[in-house]
Amino acid sequence: MLQPARSRYKAFTRRAALLGGMQGLLMSVLAGRLYYLQVIRADDYRTMADDNRISMRLLPPKRGRILDRQAVELANNQQNFRILFVPEHAKEGIAETLDALSRLVEIDEYDRRRIEREIRRNRKFMPVTVLENLAWEEFSRVNVHLPDLPGIQPDVGESRSYPLGGAFAHLVGYVGVVSEKELTGEPLLELPGFRIGKSGVERARESVLRGTAGNSQIEVNALGRVIKQLNRVDGDPGEDVVLTIDAELQMMVMDRLGEESGSVVVMDVHTGDVISMVSTPGFDPNSFNLGIDHNEWKELLADPRKPLINKPLRGQYPPGSTFKMIVALAALEAGVITEDFQTFCTGKVKLGNHTFHCWKKHGHGLQDLVSAIEHSCDVYFYEIARKTGINRIAAMAERFGLGEPTGIGVGGERSGLVPTKEWKLATIGEPWQGGETLNVGIGQGHLLTTPLQLAMMTAQLANGGKRVRPRLMYSPVAEEPANAKSGDKPAAKNEENKSLGLSEHALSLVLEGMKRVTNSPTGTAFKARIKESTMAMAGKSGTAQVRRISKYERDTRVLKNKERLWKERDHALFVAYAPVETPRYAIAVVVEHGGGGSSVAAPIARDVLTATQNRDPARTPPTGTVAVRRQEKEEG
Amino acid sequence: MLIHDGPGLTDVQLSLGQKIWNINWMLVLLISATAAIGFGMLYSVAGGSMDPWVKRQMTRFGMGLFLMFLVALVDVRFWMRYGYVIYAIALGLLIAVEFIGSVGMGAQRWVDLGVFQLQPSEIMKIAMVLALARYFHGLSLDEVERFRWLLPPLLMMLAPVALVLRQPDLGTALLIVMGSGAIFMMAGVRLWIFGFVLAAVAAATPFAWSYLHTYQKARILTFLNPERDPLGAGYHILQSKIALGSGGLAGRGYMQGTQSYLNFLPEKQTDFIFTSLAEEFGLTGGLVLLGLYVVIITYGIAIALRSRNHFGRLVAMGITVTFFLYVFINIAMVTGLVPVVGVPLPLVSYGGTAMMTILIGFGLLISVYVHRDVRIPRRPGDNV
Fold first, then answer.
1. Which terminal CB of chain B, N or C, has fewer other CB atoms within 10 Å?
2. What is the predicted pLDDT for the residue at A2?
């Protein structure tokens, strides 16, 4: 009986050696593994451990303000009263706390769903934004009840605000969330909720306004909870940008344009300072900043009056009769006419098979240069345009800066178009027709200008033929904007009143014509004159056709503007300067589909120029820049 | 130390004094030293505090030690007599979990007995060793080599394994299978059968794969490639390796383990406590603890070889292998050698149930040692 037991023990011993050996082997494997991890790869893992532990947080810089010439804030940073919710601290339960909160401030169905979704998604200690941009009363009501609302955290953040709203929407622009395309690899742009300039000055001066980000090195645990701050580097806040704009005038202009779809540009004829630049209809830039409502956005896009387009820069219109000064100057300089040149207007003129009509059906009779401007006689200008030829007209227009961007430095500026023979052959592929020169002679045809160009043209006429380019910003010193497209070149320095090389005599003839437009009882815009003699203006109306007038219509009766569809009405234009004797301000008014230049645009120009002269911003030093400097000193 | 079965003591009753004298005090000291390392680490991962873990762990260790001595002083023949009964109770509890078990950690593992919560699968680890040792004690080597004698123990093993898998608790199931396998091997089952079983398992793997839970699949996939999802399922392994690796040779110093203190480590007080140790004390600390375990395991094997009864040998070896498996799987897991399977580091990890199982196991081991010279006939009535 001992035999099996004995052999059982032997087997046991052998197997124990086997199993013990295996265990020893496996333990050696563990020791080897530890050696591999802790000695051979120790450096790698040490680096990874530090990455794990230290997290860099960007501190977004405070965005610079945008001010008008008197330091009125056009864009600033408003305290954003927010309510945050930390689900972890909600002792009463998440739903119960939100219910209690909604008895104090309104939380709509949509927000409620968003909040609950974010709570589900985030870690329990991560604050969730419940409400933003609360009114002070709402915010303080929540604050008072805070002890009963565990988990609710009041918070004051910063958000961009445009206190004067719609009148500056195009000019100042707005900020918005960074889009995929705008990511440049700069980490600041990837910060959630960070906003950059999307249009206008906000975009053009982004690099100046933004400032540089600071950062704080923090030690975080695996869940992202901050343990402590290790190091903090404060960034630099963005610089303020001071515009040449007079905010009060701008709002008055906005008001005056009312429901019209149009542009007004007011410029200092000597410095080129843009004192007002309005595009209507406006929109509320604040709604873009907070994330625009889908319906509101669709409405803006669908509006035929195109509220989103900055018309003074991006609207291109045939200048109509406002171009006649250029034609006159070109003809005089070319020597094809003299002061005494006269032509007889019968209401139409024939060239080849085409008949060219004057706006006055039965003609103006005998006209000389000054009276032709005063009456805006088309036949006279057909005649002198034909004599001068398109290329000499174009050369004169280009001397005034038409056909190219003015370089105001705000994005999206259009260049307009000054056609030449070479241009037509190259782009359309057809030779220039003689009749086209006639059309350009009255500012129609292929010719296109922006309202800003028209204001600049008028300023250069008014200042005695000196070169001037519009300037929109005093400070900081203009520099190449980071996101400039071609044509967005910053304002070229006004080469100190460099002369355009015009004959003084020719210019005085043209200006005399413009004076008569508004001050002679037979002038086209006499009704819209400024009666106060020290503020009197000189101007020129223009009515740009947007459709051909058919032979049939001419034979029967040309429909009045009011009888046409809005889209088919003429554009009303008026350019002017004031005061007549010592010109200081130039203006261009374009009312899209407004009707007649002298009946619609001229009164607007009158009212705006009157208001401008009353305020006379050019005579008072721009305190905006002074204010900024003072503030910098105080902060420094 | 090798003592053949020879004329010996058959129905000797040791006095209490003799028993206490016979206790392997060196082993008790090693166990206590290991547990003390655990206390130290729990103090560190709590950020230098006795709460919430150290105090409770000490209490449990004290209670466990008491239970260990109790078990050690009970005659080994008693454990043999009630081997099947204990097994039956454990099996019954496992079945009970199926119906009344409360859900904890995503798996049904606990049964609430009012006073304390019971994890029947832990009891089963001990009960299985007792039952299988009792069974094989009764078989001659010839019988062991015959297949039909292997069927009952196989069923005894597979019934609880199936129940544990249903909970689902892959880790415990594997521990039971491997622990039982060790007893089969020690009992003398032919080696080719193990080869055959391994081959069969390999062949059945694709089939079994479809029965695994999604989280189990994820664990295995992640183990095979931890970078697959560094912030998701692979996170644990990666963070553990980073903590270990950054410990280097000498470690960051006691209480300086940023990883565990900053909470990058999951379950830092339980399954991943070894990582904290190796981060703070480096390779040196890791090897010291590993060395302690090796010495304890060597003691276990020595006790098995020293016993004069087959039941005792099998029990001692079963307990030792189970202990080894805990150690190996846990450390291999935190160093990224095997998938994360939720096995605690014995004596060191925070947790009451595992501590009790281990200490009761050691109680049995010491009981085998205390009664090392007791002879037990293969079948009742046989003379030895």
1. N
2. 46
> Cβ of B244 and A20 within 8 Å?
no
- CATH number for the region A247-619 comes to 3.40.710.10
Distances (CA, A) of A228 to A194, A235, B225, B264, B276: 24, 20, 34, 15, 21
Query: By three-state DSSP, how is residue A345 classified?
Result: strand
Q: Which residue among B140, B248, B335 sits closest to A4, beta carbon to beta carbon? A: B140
Contacts of A44 in chain B (CB under 8 A): 245
Instruction: HSE, CB side, 13 Å, CA atoms: give it for residue B317.
Output: 33
Q: Which backbone phi and psi does A317 adopt, to 5 degrees?
A: -130, 150
Burial (Cβ within 10 Å: 0-12, 13-18, ≥19) of residue A336 = middle
pLDDT at A451 over 90: yes
In chain A, % of residues over pLDDT 70 = 87
Of A2-11, A301-310, B144-153, B287-296, where does the model show the most confidence? B287-296
Question: Domain residue spans in chain A?
Answer: 73-163, 247-619
- State the CB neighbour count (10 A cutoff) for residue B85: 12
HEC-encoded secondary structure of A574-603: EEEEECCCCCCEEEEEEECCCCCHHHHHHH
CA atoms of A244 and A268, how far apart (whole Å): 10
Q: How confident is the model at residue A494 (pLDDT cuts 50, 70, 90)?
A: low
Q: Where are the domains of chain B?
A: 16-370
Please say whether the beta carbons of B278 and B244 come within 8 A.
Answer: yes
Lowest mean pLDDT, pick from A221-230, B32-41, B305-314, B361-370: A221-230
Sign of CA dihedral B252, B254, B255, B257: positive
Q: What are A152's strand-pairing partners? A: A85
- Show which residues of A are catalytic: 321
Interface-testing mutation among B262, B263, B372, with chain A (most A C-beta atoms within 10 A): B262
Q: Write phi, then psi, for A45 (nearest 5 degrees).
A: -75, -30
Q: What is the dihedral of CA B306, B310, B313, B318, to 10 degrees?
A: 170
pLDDT at A603: 94
Q: Check CB contact under 8 Å for B305 and A42.
A: no
- CA–CA separation, A351 and A349 (whole Å): 7
Is pLDDT of B365 > 90? yes
From CA A624, how far away is CA A243, in angstroms rounded?
8
B242, A45 Cβ separation under 8 angstroms? yes
Q: How far apart are CA A456 and CA A500, in angstroms?
A: 13
Instruction: Report whether pLDDT(B266) > 70.
Output: no
| Chain-centre distance for alpha carbon A612 | 23
Mean of pLDDT over chain A: 84
d(CA A460, CA A437): 24
Beta strands in A16-72 (DSSP E): 54-59, 66-67
Percent above pLDDT 90 for chain B: 46
Q: Which two tokens stand for residue A392?
A: 């000499």
Residues of B (123-162) whose Cβ lies below 8 Å from A: 140-142, 144
Residue B86, Cα to own-chain centre: how many angstroms?
17
Taking the domain A73-163, which CATH number applies?
A: 3.90.1310.10
- Phi, psi (degrees; rounded to nearest 5) at B73: -85, -15
A3 pLDDT above the threshold of 80 = no
Choose among A286, A274, A283: nearest CA to A312: A274
The pair of structure tokens assigned to B366 is 């010491």
If one counts every other C-beta atom within 10 angstroms of the C-beta of residue B58, the result is 16
**pTM for this one?**
0.60
Whether residue B132 has pLDDT greater than 90: yes
- Is residue B149 within 8 A of residue B143, CB to CB? The reply is yes
Q: Which residues of B touch A19 (CB under 8 A)?
A: 182, 185-186, 301, 317, 321
